[in-house]
Here is the input.
Amino acid sequence: MKRTPVTMPVLSDTMETGHLVRWLKKPGDPVKKGDVLAEVESDKAIMDVEAFQDGYLSGPLAPEDSDVPVREVIAYISDEKPGPDSQSADETPAMEKTPAQDSDSQADDQSVDKSRDQSTNKTNVDAPQRTQESESESESGSEPESDSEQESEKVSVSANADAQAQTQKQTQSTDSISQAKASPYARGLAMELGVPLNQVAPSADGVIHANNVLSAALQGPAPNLDAGPAWKLHAFTPMRRSVAEHMQQAGKTPTFHVSARLSLELLAKQSKQQKHSFTLLLAQAAAQTIKEMPLFNAAYTPLGLAYRNQIDIGIAMDIPGGLVTPVLRDVAGRSLDELEQSWRALKQKAKQQRLLKEDYQGGTFYISNLGMFPLVDNFDAIVPLGSAAILAIAALQDGKASVTLSADHRVVYGADCARFLEKLNDKILGFN
Amino acid sequence: MSKEIFYWQALNQALDAEMSKDDTVFILGEDVGLYGGSYRVTEGLHAKYGDWRVRDTPISEGSFTGLGVGAAMVEMRPIVEIMTINFSLLALDAITNMATKVPFMSSGQFPMPLVIRMPGGVAKQLAAQHSQRLEQTLMNIPGVRIAVPATPQDAWWQTRQAIRSNEAIIILEHELLYFSKGILDKTAPAPPMHRAMIRREGRNLTIISYSRMSLLAEQAATQLADEGIDAEVIDLRSLNPIDWDRCVASVEKTHRLLIVEEDSLFAGAGAEIAATLGERCFYSLDAPISRHAGLDLPTPYNGKLEAASIPTVTSIKQAARALTQTENAK
Here is the structure.
């Protein structure tokens, strides 16, 4: 029987791990070349892992909802239907060894039955290590209020030696952060820099290395939660991590805000009549304004201002589990109908979390619209890196809405923003 | 005044230089006289210094190495050539029980200015009995010094230093190095005999190696630089003593250590290096120390299998990547 490995695909240059969302096939299922085997989440997109040859999916499968280093084997395709023996092996999670339990080298060789028999043993071995490594967490987190039964079992692993192998498997992805091993050098650095190790995200190999500690230290002080009530860590989803990292970077931008109340009633009416999305009409008005004020299409770089030859507007979208900013290309240069078409496609993709890098990267100006929340009368947004400003639109009240331009003061100044808002107002009013 | 010469020529010139200066220096071994040595190292010396100072011996490593020990005890400076390290097993009694014990047990009443030269290593399909390294066997004998020159320059320096030294010294040459070329600058000041040398400076990891493997490590490091992996390469030059300070300083800088050796992994030189540097650099290590070594098996005769049994430039690069890939690409 020939078995060809299926590996975690490399979906971007910087991708170190992929989040295995779910399997769409079971071990033993016949698969054809091109069939979707699994879904994998990276940065902001969920991608399909396809079979690259005919055969049968066979295990061990990497567990669902886990982070797997790129190029690591997540399953096999065999040319024969796997027999009952290998079926049982299929249940053994391929990731048993990584990342939290690397030290437990025996686990690798054990079939599921065996490892269940010895689970008491195994947990015993693990227990002191776990408590030791995350003393602070298990002290305060040993009696958590939890959402589900599974999770309550999970936290008590350190205290309760009877925890089953099953639950252990599920705990790994979330616990791995606080339980990760650290290199001696990383430990020393963490101590010197005062970085609590249980709040440092490990590298792709599941181990905390020096540069993980350094980047945690650069991110600023981590809150000391142990002084407060019991807490439990939920690992970042790739999307949340990505948003957090971008916001962290954008936080260094010297930002200021200029607000105005614009009459948007006409625009809203027009949106209804023409059946064009309100956001789209706004984006177009903004693009027309930017066209006359190209400074708002520039970006700060250490060498100078980068003026772009096309206006690509990123539009913040609220989706389940996070935030994405699909980018509408060439807003000033295309007809409303064309834009509408692109925008619908982007919205569709965003809702299914299927946006690709090229769908959400490289905006030159941004819009964030909270108009659907009638109580919000004013807010401002964070200027994403690579743009000069972001326009925040609050809810319509008495035909007017508060519009706030947050801008990078290295690119545009207060009067520029005032002029921008005036021009935008003209565009909106002159729309009919 | 420097020029490119063969490794064997550097050895030959070092022997000649010392023999011409000091009458007590003499050579003995199999085929060292009329034939000029199996790897040409003693070429021309018999004609120049005659039967008494370049002596052919019977095929009997135990007896002629013992003869060397005896000559050293009476303050001659013998250079014993053992045709390959594989035959040195027959001379282990002379090396272990005599050469290193006599000065110790006589409280230094007997000196031991003995040099034993021998080549080792995997060459080109010489089969299992003629492809051994055996560094670990010799390293485990207390009191014996071991030099492992990798370049003609080091061969020149270390052979002359060994001949002048009053301690028993083994010079481990490598069969594939004799016909490698390198610059020899006879006017350059010699570093201490047992000083390790940094062949390439780097920041991301330290590769410690010796003899032929240090040359491969250097090549691997040059290629790794194109991938953004900046490796520091240390050539130990001496396996006993080992220049720990230089190794420690490097590991404290790079925080990652890869050891490359041609000899088998199990209980090899790399095990000693890993253990000592694990003790001395524990708090500086950002990843477990990694050893990349020959396979634990007699060297296969088949050419492909033989090549696959020891590290190559490609495999060294892989090992370095594996050790550094935990780094974030940022």
Remarks:
- Chain A touches chain B at residues 13-14, 16, 183-188, 203-205, 207, 209-212, 215 (CB under 8 Å).
- The radius of gyration of chain A is 26 Å.
- Residues 294 and 307 of chain A are 7 Å apart (CA to CA).
